[in-house]
């Protein structure tokens, strides 16, 4: 017989498997039925669309007026040269958002991507061919490399480059693949819980873990537009149930899901019905340690959150506040403010 739920099940397991240097699988479970795709699909879109990469946005080639021109002594037309250039993956050093780099090559030479390495940029796929020069060839060019997200067509970048430069389509995205699959997993007697397996490959400009972490951060920031209004209103509704003489209790009435606990620590508290920070403040150190299935790591995490909230080992809760807080938490829970 299954119990009636008042909150969704919180996933507690995350596994990261490195397939290669720029390829990982990230698995998380167990999710409530239907929750996996709800989370996985927008995360995949954000991994692909919000990951920061680098791309050339313009190039100036001595002797070439436009991309359909040609250079004396260079086998490739300028259009082919630009296509080769776009396939090269760059990384700007020293934390800059944009750099301009200059190059000169002359005489017989097979120019490859690695020849573009210098103190300002790093080339990640150095074996790619760029140009083939004859004995009498001279190739002088400068290009601007910028940091960005997603894809920008050349017409949108015209205002970003100097007059006379050839504007390039910019493919910033460093993620080569971001797929997910969903499988069922058994929780107690229910086989319909789900797990998500993300399969992420990048080009080396960032790691797959960085791409995934960035997507999570972007998702949280995007959702904050709602929490900044709705969540504050909900919290205000709860906290405003406290009369003016009880206003000193407000710091203790943060819910534990707002203090940044990991899934394992949160689940342990949730199983015990602990909803408010003040409940932890009311507990002794041994009482917190003895919470079932908490574990030493989660205990340390809770203690760190208490210290950061100003409730460290030296904090003493006055008896008058302790009595009021106990009564107020009981009132909130009895009214359903969970």
Which SSEs are present, and which pair or pack?
Layout: E1 13-20, E2 23-31, H1 35-50, E3 52-61, H2 78-86, E4 90-92, E5 98-106, E6 109-112, E7 121-123, E8 129-133, E9 138-149, E10 151-152, E11 166-167, E12 170-171, E13 175-187, E14 190-202, H3 208-239, H4 263-271, H5 277-282, H6 285-289, H7 296-308, H8 319-334
Antiparallel strand pairs: 1-2, 2-14, 3-9, 3-11, 4-7, 5-9, 6-8, 10-12, 13-14
Helix pairs in contact: 1-3
Defining traits:
single chain; 338 residues; alpha+beta; RNA Polymerase Alpha Subunit, Chain A, domain 2; DNA polymerase, domain 1; four-stranded antiparallel β-sheet; 8 helices; 14 strands; 31% helix; 28% strand; elongated
The CATH architecture of the largest domain can be named as Beta Complex
Helix fraction bin:
25-40%
**Cα-atom Rg, whole angstroms?**
28 Å
Q: Calculate the mean pLDDT score and round it.
A: 86
Main sheet properties: 4 strands, antiparallel
- Which fold name corresponds to the CATH topology of the largest domain? RNA Polymerase Alpha Subunit, Chain A, domain 2
Poorly predicted ranges: none
What sort of overall outline do the alpha carbons produce when their principal axes are compared?
elongated
Strand content: 25-35%
- What is the CATH C level class of the largest domain, in words? Mainly Beta
Question: Could you name the CATH homologous superfamily of the largest domain?
Answer: DNA-directed RNA polymerase, insert domain
Between the first and last Cα atoms, what is the distance in angstroms?
24 Å
**Number of β-strand runs:** 14
Secondary structural class: alpha+beta
Q: How many structurally independent domains?
A: 3
Treating each run of at least 4 consecutive H or I residues as one helix, how many helices?
Answer: 8
Strand order across the largest sheet: 1-2-14-13
State the oligomer. single chain
């Amino acid at each position: 017989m299954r119990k009636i739920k008042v909150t969704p099940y919180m996933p507690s397991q995350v596994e990261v498997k490195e397939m290669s240097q720029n390829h990982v699988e990230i698995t998380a479970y167990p999710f409530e039925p239907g929750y996996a795709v709800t989370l996985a699909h927008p995360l995949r879109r954000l991994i692909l669309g919000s990951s920061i990469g680098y791309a050339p946005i313009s190039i100036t080639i001595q002797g070439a007026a436009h991309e359909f021109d040609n250079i004396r002594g260079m086998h490739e037309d300028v259009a082919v040269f630009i296509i080769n250039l776009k396939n090269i993956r760059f990384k700007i050093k020293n934390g800059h958002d944009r750099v301009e780099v200059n190059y000169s090559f002359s005489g017989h030479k097979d120019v490859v991507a690695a020849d573009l390495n210098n103190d300002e940029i790093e080339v990640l796929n150095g074996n790619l061919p760029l140009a083939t020069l004859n004995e009498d060839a001279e190739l002088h060019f400068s290009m601007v490399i910028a940091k960005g997200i997603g894809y920008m067509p050349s017409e949108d970048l015209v205002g970003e480059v100097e007059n006379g430069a050839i504007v390039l389509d910019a493919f910033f995205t460093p993620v080569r693949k971001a797929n997910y699959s969903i499988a069922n997993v058994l929780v107690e007697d229910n086989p319909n819980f789900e797990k998500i397996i993300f399969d992420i490959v990048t080009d080396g400009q960032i790691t797959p873990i960085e791409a995934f972490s960035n997507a999570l951060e972007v998702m949280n920031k995007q959702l904050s537009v709602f929490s900044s209004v709705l969540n504050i209103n909900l919290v205000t509704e709860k906290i405003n149930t406290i009369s003016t003489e009880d206003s000193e209790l407000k710091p203790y009435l943060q819910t534990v899901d707002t203090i940044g606990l990991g899934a394992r620590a949160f689940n342990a508290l949730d199983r015990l019905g602990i909803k408010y920070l003040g409940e932890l403040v009311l507990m002794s150190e041994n009482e917190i340690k003895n919470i079932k299935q908490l574990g030493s790591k989660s205990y340390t995490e809770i203690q760190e959150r208490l210290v950061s909230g100003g409730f460290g080992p030296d904090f003493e809760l006055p008896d008058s506040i302790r009595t009021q807080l106990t009564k107020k938490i009981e009132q909130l829970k009895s009214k359903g403010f969970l």
